[in-house]
Every structure is written in C-alpha cells, then in structure tokens.
Design a protein that fits this description.
The protein has helices at 42-55, 72-81, 92-98, 105-113; strands spanning 2-9, 12-19, 22-28, 37-38. By secondary structure, the protein is α+β, with helices and mostly antiparallel strands.
Length: 122
C-alpha cells in the first residue's frame, strides 16, 4: 500500500511518502498525489521521528527503510551521496569520481536535483 502524511517541522511542512514498507519520497510542503492514502503509518512515524532528531542535531545516521525510484544512473549517484559523512560536503566532481564517471559532473548535479530523499540522502 502507498501512504503519505504531512508533518509541521522547524523547516516547514514535510510530506513523507511510503510504499510499504519503504519511505520513497520526502517533499518540502504538501504534494497531493491521488495514488497515496493519507495515513500516519508506523514507518512514516519512525521517519518523522528520525528527521526531527536529525534536525535537532541528535541523529547523524538514518535507520529507516527507504527505496529509491529513478534511473540506474540516478540511483548510483544517490547511493554515493549516502557515503558523505554527516557535516561534510562533496562537490559534484567528487561524487562523479566516486561513481567512476569523472566527466559526469553535470549529470551528477541533475541527479542530485531529482533526489527524492534529500534529508536522508544529503
């Protein structure tokens, strides 16, 4: 089943989407999607709790189950982003090198722009 729920946080409304049992998307602000039933599930509650802990500086690693939907290239980029330690940054070029595609700097930027879990995958 597909569920979603909106929470008000210190950074505004976050709309969390679940395709049971995985979190699949987090939107800044409400995003109406008729494919998702608005319901606060245990997985969505846990995601919200971990996000709140992260925003308070109490959490550095997320443990919620998530699933990425995108192209193979996008998934490769997003999986590389997960490797960036808390509080650190990486350039698009560093990420491109990390996925063994040094010339894909702009494509890495585009994949990053499409990241559906930008709070969990930096």
């Amino acid at each position: 089943m597909k569920y979603s729920f909106v929470y008000n946080t210190i950074i505004g409304d976050l709309h969390i989407f679940e395709d049971s049992p995985y979190i699949t998307r987090i939107n800044f602000g409400r995003l109406d999607d008729p494919l998702y039933k608005e319901e606060e599930t245990d997985t969505i509650k846990k995601a919200h709790l971990e996000i709140e802990e992260y925003l308070r500086g109490e959490r550095k690693v997320f443990t919620i189950p998530y699933k990425l939907y995108g192209t193979d290239f996008q998934k490769k980029v997003w999986e590389e982003l997960v490797k960036i330690p808390y509080g650190k940054t990486a350039t698009y070029k560093q990420v491109a090198i990390g996925i063994d595609n040094e010339k894909a700097v702009r494509a890495v930027g585009n994949a990053n722009n499409k990241n559906p879990l930008s709070l969990i995958i930096p």
